[in-house]
User: What shape does this take?
Amino acid sequence: MDNILYDKHYNCLACDSEFKTKKVRSGKIRTTHIDSDLCSYYDGIVPYYYEINICPQCGFAFTDSFAPLKTNQKQMIYEDYAKRYLPQGVPNLCDERDEHEAILSFRLALGAGFAMKEQPKLLAGICMRLAWLHRMAERPEAEHEFLDAANRFFQVAYETQQDSLGDAYYLHMLGDTSLRLDRISEARRWFSQLFAPANSGYRYIELARDAWAEHRYEQETTN
Ligand SMILES: [Zn+2]
Assistant: This one.
């Protein structure tokens, strides 16, 4: 574990304090399995646990992808965040994290992302990780709650954003989350767009095809 984790320095987006927090050396981990919505499983450690940075001074949470806060917005955004999400005080989540602490870190990052009006694709990504952690712990209701939230953010992202992630990724996530939420006609609509020839080069196209094919196979065998 010592070998896999290392300390990385950050400056808090809200209060500017410098702190260090544990990160995972990506070269030291090995993927053992990947679900159709890209939830990855690893030998021994769950790298998702360490994605969120939480300032030990003020409790503000952020990912490496969050935009810097404008100086004139810092106080208002922080106060709004602290009032809603830190009623129990500032946690210290800079050391090794257990599952409970990892979920708390993502919930705080979601709160901070809301307060900052962060991009829908980032909020969708945080919701997917919360869904995955609940999936790994076999809590399907909580998993579905966050898949539903992710699905809504992905729709906004798909309709409003043009970026390097590309349409195929959004169509994949929209199709897969819809399928897992049992919204079959929606899933069919997203997947049929994904399976258009223009997306045949998409990296995870086979994963998406398999998920949809498996669903259809299950439908045929239960009918
Ligand atoms: Zn801070």
Observations:
- The pocket of zinc ion is lined by residues 12, 14-15, 17, 55, 57-58, 60 (CB under 6 Å).
- The CA atoms of residues 120 and 156 lie 7 Å apart.
- The mean pLDDT is 94.
- Residues 120-223 form one domain.
